[in-house]
Every structure is written in structure tokens, then in C-alpha cells.
Amino acid sequence: MTPGRRSSTFTRLLRHGFTDASAAERLLDSPELAAVRDDPVLLEALGATADPDLALHGLVRLLEAQPGHTARRELLDTLIAAKPLRDRLLGVLGASAALADHLARHPRDWEELVTYEPRDLHPGVAEFERGLAEAADPISLRVAYRRCLLSIAARDVCGTTDVAETAAELADLATATLRAALTLAERAAPADAAACRLAVIAMGKCGGHELNYVSDVDVIFVGEAADEDDEAKALRSATKLASHMMRICSETTVEGSIWPVDANLRPEGRNGPLVRTLSSHLAYYQRWAKTWEFQALLKARPVAGDLGLGAEYVAALEPLVWKAAERENFVADVQKMRRRVVENIPAAEIERELKLGPGGLRDVEFAVQLLQLVHGRADATLRSGTTLDALQALAAGGYVGRADAVQLGDAYRFLRSMEHRIQLYRLRRTHLVPEGEADLRRLGRSLGLRADPVTELTREWKRHSGVVRRLHEKLFYRPLLDAVAQLAPGEARLSPKAARERLEALGYADPAAALRHLEALASGVTRKAAIQRTLLPVLLGWFADSADPDAGLLNFRKVSDALGKTPWYLRLLRDEGAAAENLARVLSAGRLAPDLLMRAPEAVALLGDGDGGGLELRGRAQLEQEILAAVGRAENAEDGVRAARGVRRRELFRTAAADIVDSYGTETKPAEADQGALVDRVGAAVSDLTAATLAGTLRAVVRWGGWGDTLPTRFAMIGMGRFGGHELGYGSDADVVFVHEPREGVDEREAADAANKVVAEMRRLLQVPSADPPLLIDADLRPEGKSGPLVRTLKSYEAYYRRWSLVWESQALLRADPVAGDEELGRRFVELIDPLRYPAEGLGEDAVREIRRLKARMESERLPRGADPRLHTKLGPGGLSDVEWTVQLLQLRHGWAEPGLRTTRTRQALAAARAAGLLGAEDAAILDEAWVLATRVRNAVMLVRGRAGDTFPTESRELAAVGRYLGYGDGHAGDMLDAYRRTTRRARAVVEELFYGA
To answer: Which residues fall within 8 angstroms of residue 952, CB to CB, at 6 or more apart?
Structure first.
């Protein structure tokens, strides 16, 4: 050979798929292969395997392990002469290093692959039992198990069996192995075996006849006394047998282990007894079982031990399984379990997680099981524990669209094939797609992807995973549309009864009305109906994730009726990823946001992520600029204020929608974890919007009130209470006081008349019945309250505060902040009141006692009759009033010395008090948590009910909606109330110490 040139063998090896041709050449030159090294049949066969290098290495090891020359010659002759053996043996060696190790340890086991009779193509439990029959101890059982596994793998890698048949064979081998292990355990303890009846129930993939190469085998044990023996003694014996059987399969020996036997799906999991009687199982499932436990029972199958007792177990529990869909929050529980699984995947692994990740095998299995539980009550054809069989039955019955079922089935088969081949390589339990180039190449070639294995594998994997992501939820909802649409003749569809069952399972209280809405939205041949049919399967899922799916669907119909002919509406929902989900969340979260949207449905455009600003909240300056510009274009005061109120309505919707989306979270963005940030955003947004609206209204009233653009008196509005604190909620009035100062040369009476006319006209115009919500101005915090003049001059305020001011007025002034009108006058008003609200040297003891007396009186007199004080967000113990009065007392006592306390905002003042050492960090955190929670509850009540309230709703759906806003899932309203009581109880203890000095 010319120096520098590769041999022809080297080139042929590369052409046949070897990656290390030099090493392969050396192996082919080994004495064991000398007789066949140039045989083209061998090279072709090696090149056809998943990993030719691995296959050749395994073959050399196998030949080296043969007991002598004659045995090696026999293997080589058979290998070259018999194509079935060649394909099977080399196929296994090229796909599984672990089975190559087994063959090297047991060099005659290759003979198991020689026989090629039709009866060998699809062995069942009986055939595998014969294969394991000679096992006399755990070690020989492992060897026999691997020998049987060798034949399954050979049929798999050669394509003799498909993935479903391979999974079924693995389950049958597991069944035979469990029986053999139990037999060994019974031989070791014949007295225990005689004392009890023990049934082994397979669960999970083994029970479903769809096992992996390496997987925990999930089981449940049922025990009874034999004859009239003592039950307690029988259960002890059954437990010993069950434990021994598990150890035989699970423990590691010189031949490795078989697989772990996992009994944690039993009642009470690890905390429950390993073996129970049938009556004990039944009692548990009737009283205590959770939804997921019934879901798990879908795959229950007696496999070993007393099969009669196992059949009794399945027959006794089956009726309970098919009633599971009638449980409250059934669908939500199943979906929550699925989300929890995904959330527990390490972030670094989620994209490679083949089983549990989004678009993975578990998505298909959960979707199919959900549909089985809903419709299997009335249709026994759906009661299969095998995923692909169940999917086929769902399609045949019209519960799933045929095309969807085909796509999902193909994706499931591909993903299961990947999982099988990944596990087969090392016979290790893993569901992670490998990252190494060599591993990906082997995996791709094992699946028949030969041109560019890594690229093709990645593309096919992502394609099938994308199909699962797209379809697994639509699978549940799309047939609901087919049930009300015009389908091609012969196409199966959900019956009206089945459609109602599905809607009930989703949480719809009025499934008949829901079907009518779907029919109105999706029937017909128009482009609008076609787009709705595309959107609705996803929207129905989002509606079902809320506390009131009926309201969500009804509101969507109303919006669609109003905007359906507008070309941009459906395009927005179809093309902008965030818009449809945001709309679904907003429409099903309560009454306020949908009501605001229905008043001007075009505001739905805010829910997109395009150029309109979306749900990003706008600041005071931007709002005021828009409102003043709109007022400037108006022709009279009514039109000007109408324009200002229109902007307010739109921005209230934007604020509410952003709050809902942030609180619920979306598929791409988790819910906001910082509850305080949510409260601050809403408080600032509503307060800024109210201030801008008042500024615009003032401009309109002055301009068209006969004064031109200049009022004969300077005029300012001072925000009080939550308005001055920038803490307004959705249902808050605007607490203000009015101050004016006559311009030079203007008579005081004329100035006062003008100011009073402005106030009266502003209040009237902001409450005129219209499509926009009213804005109520409350001036009751002014000096002398309702008995005092509505508007005062700055000098009048000065005289009053100098002579008559009470301590409660100083306290109220802590939250005074100019919000509209003459800025310079507002600043001077603040300068006037600062000595009152931050008195030099702080409050005297008499004033402190007076504040405490007022607080105690308010607690006893102002709480509504019949209200539960522990759940009253404003006046209840640990509620808003408790926290605010405590903070305000600190401000009154120390504000003169601590500049940080001179703020109108509760949370800022609390943080400043903590920083100044006036209270401990833990106490500050407790008060802050309680104040934020109470504020969130008030906001939630307004969003849900559409009217303000200080207590939790009593109606169950409204209470659930409040809980959903606060981050509690369906069925956890009690947990929410307990958490509220717990939080406010801790806050009250701090208030007792800090405010009352207890």
C-alpha cells in the first residue's frame, strides 16, 4: 500500500457507518474473526446496525468468551449462514452494550436467537414462564430474565415487532418474572404461603401492558386469610411474602438487578401498610382517595399470586374508577397534577425530558386517561389500560377527532421508540435524550434515520413533541365543537349527552347553555366560524382553568358578537400569541373586567402584544396629557368629561386585565410571585388614573363654565385617604378636600361661589349615567365633615387648624397629597399641614390615648352587623385599619425626627419605620404581609363581583374566583380563608403590642 493512503478496508468501513475505522480494522484482524474478515455478508450486516463499532466490539467479545475453537467456529458458521440470527444478534450488539455484557458473561445465550419459528415471533406470559422455569434462586432468575430480554430486544431492533408489541412483551415478561419471584418467596416460607391468599396487582405501565425496557414495576398487594385463619396473622404472612418478592426483583447481585418493584401507589403510599385486605382497600378508596389515585387504577391488572382475589379487587374498585369524573374539581385536579410533574423537572433537563416534559409521553397519557375517565362511565369500550388502544377507542367513538388521534398516536409511538432505544443501550432507567454526538447518532440510526442521523433525529423528535404540545389539550376540547358543527357524512362525533358530560367534567355549571354558545360561535361555513373553530379548543381549556368557565364562554360570545365583523379582532386572537390567552383569563376571572370591556369592546386590542402598548400600565403624565388633549377637542363640558371618563374606563380595563394576567400567570409567564408589587402597581395605576380624570374634568368645567381658561380663584384638590396614599383599589371613591384662594382683586364671595360651582359641576358630570363607570368624589374628610363648607380658602384652613383641629384630623392629614389643580396652591397647603401631621417632639400622651380610644370605638361600632370580624379586610383584627392606624401612630409620634416617615404611602412608611428601628424586621414583615393580603382580597372581590366589598364572598363560585386570583387552585378556598385568618391573627398580635402597648 502506498504510504499515506488508506487501505480499501478502511474506506469500506467508513462507508458502512463505522466511526473509528482504524479500531474496526484491528478488530477484524483479530484471530477470532480471521476466517470471516473479508466476508462481505458480515460487513453489510454490521453496517446495518445502529452502531457498527459497538456491534463489532461486542461480537469479538462474544467470540473470545466461547469455551473453545469448536464453539467459536459454530457461532461464526451460523452467523454467516443464517440471516435471521445475523440480523438479530448483530442488531442487539449494535444497540445494547448491556446485553453485549450479558452475552460475554453467558456466551451460549446467543443460541436463544437462532430459532425463528412463527410461534416465537410474539411470545406471551406462558412462553416467558417456560423461559424462567428453571430459575431456582434470585441470581439464576436474573440470568433467565436477561435471556428472555435478549429475544425481545432482538425482535425489536430488527423490526419484527413494533413499539406497542415490544412494550406488551416487556409487560408479559415482567408478569412472568413477578410470578417466578413470588414462587421463590413462597418456597422460602411455605408456612406463610399456606396462611394467606396474596394477589399482586400490576399498576402503571406494567398494568397497562406497555412497559419500558427499564422501569419501576408498580404494584399493589391484596391479602386475605386462607380458609378461616386469623386475618392479622395472614396479613403478616402476606407482607413477608410481598417484601421478599420485591427484594428478589430489586436487589443488586453479581448479575445486577431486574428492576425495582414499587408499591408506593398503594393507599396512603409509603405510610400505609404494604398489604391490605380487599375490604380495607375498598374502604380507603370510598372515603379517602384522591383523584390521581383513581386515575392510577385505570391500569390495575392482576398478574401474580391469587388471580381470583386479584379479579375480585378489580371488580370491586372498577365502579369507583368510573365515578371519579363526578368528583368536584376533577379535571382541575388532573391538570394540576400534570403541571406539578412539569414544575418538578430540573430546569437543566426539561428540554431533554422525553417522558415528563412538555410535549412528552406523559402529556399523551394524561390526555387519554382524562377522556377515558369522563366518557368511560357510559362507554365500556374505552376501558383499556393501554394508551394506544384507548386512543384508538376514543377515536372510534367520536370522543377524539380521527386525524388528531392518528397524529397523536404516531407521535406517541415515535417518542416511546426513542425511550426504548435510549434505555436499551445501558439498560438503565432514564428518560433523558442524550447530549453526546455518538449517543445521538446511535439513537438516530436505531430508528432508521441513516442519512444524517443526528439532524434527522432532532428534527423528528421536535416535530413529534410539537404535535403533542399542540394536540394534547385540544384533544379534550375540539370534539365539543364537532358536536355542534356540520361534519362530513359518516364522521363520528360526540353525542349531545357525551358533550354535556365533558363540559360538566370541565366545571361548566350549565353545559346545555355552553353547547348553545359553541354552536352560535362555531357553526357555519364563514371564515369567522372557521377561525372560531380553531381558537375555541384552546380557549375552552383556559376557561376551564378558571373558577367560572360558564361566564368565560358567555363573555367570549358577547365580545365576538360585538366585534365578529371587525377584521382585526379574530386576526388578533389568531396571530398574536398572548391575546387569546389574556382574553380568556380576563373574561373568566369575574365581572368587573368583562363589564368594562363590554362597554367598549374595541379595548380587546389592549390584550395583544403589538404596537398598542398592550397591558403595560401608563403613568400619570401620559394619562393627563391624553385626557387634557381630549378635553381640548370637545365642544362643551359634557363632551369633555365624557371623553375623560372614556379614557378612564379603558385604562381601568387595562389595569384590571394586567392585574388578572399577572395574578393568574400564562403558559409562557408564571404568575407574579411578589404580591406587594401587584398591590403597588394597581394602587399607583388607579390613583394616577383618578387624578388625571379629575384634572381633565376640572379643565372642562372651568373652560365651559363661563370663566374661559382662568377661574377667578386659584383651585386645588387634595387627595385624602387611600387616594392621597396612592393606594386606590378598583372600587374606591376619590376622597378629597378642596382648597381655593381668590385671585388678586377678586371678591371672596365671588371666588367662593366659583369654587363651589366647579365642585358641584364636577361631581355631577362624573356621575352622569353613561356607558362609563361613575367616579364618586367624597369630601367628608374636610374640616367639620358634612357640616362644614365644601370648599375653603387656604386662610380658612389655617384658621380652623389653628383653633379647632382635633387629633383625628391630624391623623387624616397624614395621607393628604395634592392631586389636581393649582400646583403652587397645593404645595402651600402641604406646607400648612406638615406641622399638624408631624408635630414637633411628637404626640403627647393625651393625644395617643385619644387615638387609641377612637380606634377601639371604631372597632366596636362600625363593623357591619352579622359580619365575621376575622374575615373583614378593613375593620377586622389584623386588617387594613389595624395596620394603617399602627403605622400612622408611628408617623405622628416620630415623623418630626425621621424624614422617611413623611410619606402618604403605608408600605413606604412601614419600611421607613423599620429602617429607623421603631419596630423589628419581623414585626414589619408581618404587618406588611397582612396589609398586602387584605388589599389584594378587596381588589379580588371587586374584580369578581363587580362591586366593592370588605369581606370574602359567600357564593362558592365567587369565593373560588377570589382564591384563584390569590393563587389558590380549585377546591382550596378553605386553605385561602385559613391562611387569611392566620396572617391577620399574627398581625393583630403585633398591633396589640405596638399600637395598644399591650
So the answer is: 871, 937, 941, 959, 962, 977, 980
